[in-house]
Design brief:
- It is built from nine helices and 14 strands.
- It is of the alpha/beta class and 256 residues long.
- The protein has one domain: Ribonuclease Z/Hydroxyacylglutathione hydrolase-like (Metallo-beta-lactamase, Chain A), CATH 3.60.15.10.
- The chain has a six-stranded mixed sheet with strand order 1-2-3-4-5-6, with helices on one face. Strands 7-8-9-10-13-14 form a six-stranded mixed sheet. The protein has a two-stranded antiparallel sheet with strand order 11-12.
- Strand 3, helix 1 and strand 4 form a beta-alpha-beta unit.
- Helix 4 crosses helix 9 and helix 8 crosses helix 9.
- The radius of gyration is 18 Å and the shape is globular.
- The structure holds zinc ion (ZN).
- Zinc ion binds next to loops.
């Protein structure tokens, strides 16, 4: 199983640190200092940086990390990353392999939150940036509802036990919305209790799993009658397909 450490960052970001022996891979370093501190504390070398998308809270630490660890490789989406002059552009289905560490990750292109967004998965773990959150999904900035819907469906096709390492601690707020949409979903009722307890203890609610998300995250449940009813009550439109349901569901969350 993959060793993954949580580095809380900014107000509610998580930077994920994958470690193997004395080597580390960092995902979405929105700032450098807490990463450097962790690497130094544990005598780790930074082998690689994974970037899911260009937003500053996922990338602002990259330039400094490259300066401090000039041999580390940077893998990112097909868009300019502020302050990073060169990195390896990853496309859908690309593989990133570290033979010396016996690690291998697959990249998927998951547009929706942004038009260029990628996720990394391997060894039972998914690093999904701002595409999938626990109980929610990213806002639609430069991507479309259709893209996001398809990206989420694809992530939902991963094995149920896959650990979901999302980039933000939004779980409680997200689940409050899920409960509003599906007030009778027992799984969600129990999950929000658990999440609330974790937050009171100052603990992270991540990683989640694909199984948890499929049972509680309304953005993966647009085929469920309760979700369809909720959306139908918001809209005079004739609901033609799940993408339309998804789009209205996402839009409503923005306007709460
Ligand atoms: Zn973002």
């Amino acid at each position: 199983m993959l060793q993954v450490q949580t580095i809380p960052s900014r107000q509610d970001n998580y930077i994920w640190l994958i470690t193997k022996g004395n080597q580390a891979i960092v995902v979405d370093p929105g700032e450098a200092s807490p990463v450097v501190e962790r690497l130094q504390q544990q005598n780790l070398n930074l082998k690689a940086i994974f970037i899911t998308h260009h937003h500053h809270d996922h990338t602002e630490g990259v330039a400094e990390l490259i300066t401090r660890y000039p041999h580390c490789e940077v893998y990112g989406p097909q868009i300019l990353i502020p302050g990073v002059s060169h990195f390896q552009v990853m496309r859908d289905q690309d593989l990133i392999t570290f033979p010396d560490l016996d690690l291998r990750f697959t990249v998927w292109h998951t547009p929706g939150h942004t038009a260029e967004h990628i996720v990394f998965h391997g060894h039972g773990a998914l690093f999904c940036g701002d595409t999938l959150f626990s109980g929610g999904c990213g806002r639609l900035f430069t991507g479309t509802a259709e893209q996001m819907f398809n990206s989420l469906q694809r992530l939902a096709s991963l094995p149920e036990e896959t650990l979901v390492y999302a980039a933000h601690e939004y779980t409680y707020n997200n689940l409050s919305y899920c409960l509003r949409v599906e007030p009778d979903n027992i799984f969600t009722i129990n999950r929000i209790k658990e999440v609330s307890k974790l937050r009171q203890q100052g603990c992270s609610t991540l990683p989640s799993t694909i199984a948890i998300e499929k049972q509680s995250n309304v953005f993966l449940r647009t085929q469920m009658p309760a979700v369809i009813n909720f959306v139908q009550n918001l809209s005079d439109l004739y609901l033609e397909n799940e993408i339309q349901i998804f789009a209205i569901l996402r839009e409503k969350k923005n306007n709460l």
